[in-house]
Design brief:
Layout lengths: L10 E2 L2 E7 L8 E6 L4 E5 H5 L8 H4 L22 E5 L10 E4 L5 E2 L4 E2 L1
Antiparallel strand pairs: 1-2, 2-3, 3-4, 5-6, 6-7, 7-8
Length: about 120
C-alpha cells in the first residue's frame, strides 16, 4: 500500500478538502470536502486526485450553454440539423448511389452531389 498523502486544504474543482474521513470498505482513504455551494460531501482520495468528482452534484444542475448550429453535410444549411434520412435507392441499384434527404430543409442528395 502506498504512503498516506495529506491533501487537506487542496481544492479539486469546486470541492475543498476539509479533513480526513474514515476509510471505505476497501481501505481507500476518504476525505470530508466542502463544495463551493456550501454542501458537505465525503469523497475518495483516488476520485479527487483523478479529477472525477468536481462538485457535490450541483454542477449537473446548472444549465448547459446552447449548442452552435451544425451545418448539414448535404446542403450546408444551418437549420437545426437532425441528420440525414435514407429516402430511396435509384433505379440502377448497382450504382451504389443511395438517395438521402436533409431532415431540416428536405434537400435530396446522393453521395456525389445535391439533387434538386
Amino acid at each position: 500500500m502506498s504512503a498516506f498523502k495529506d491533501i487537506t486544504g487542496q481544492t479539486f474543482g469546486q470541492l475543498k478538502v476539509i479533513n480526513r474521513a474514515d476509510n471505505d470498505i476497501y481501505g481507500s482513504a476518504q476525505w470530508n470536502c466542502r463544495c463551493s455551494c456550501g454542501k458537505a460531501k465525503v469523497v475518495s482520495g483516488i476520485v479527487l486526485r483523478a479529477h472525477i468528482a468536481k462538485s457535490c452534484g450541483c454542477l449537473m444542475k446548472q444549465p448547459k450553454p446552447p449548442r452552435k448550429p451544425i451545418k448539414c453535410p448535404l446542403c450546408g444549411c444551418e437549420a437545426p440539423y437532425k441528420g440525414m434520412r435514407h429516402v430511396s435507392f435509384p433505379d440502377n441499384v448497382w450504382s451504389n448511389r443511395a438517395v438521402y434527404e436533409c431532415s431540416a430543409c428536405g434537400t435530396a442528395s446522393t453521395k456525389a452531389g445535391v439533387l434538386k
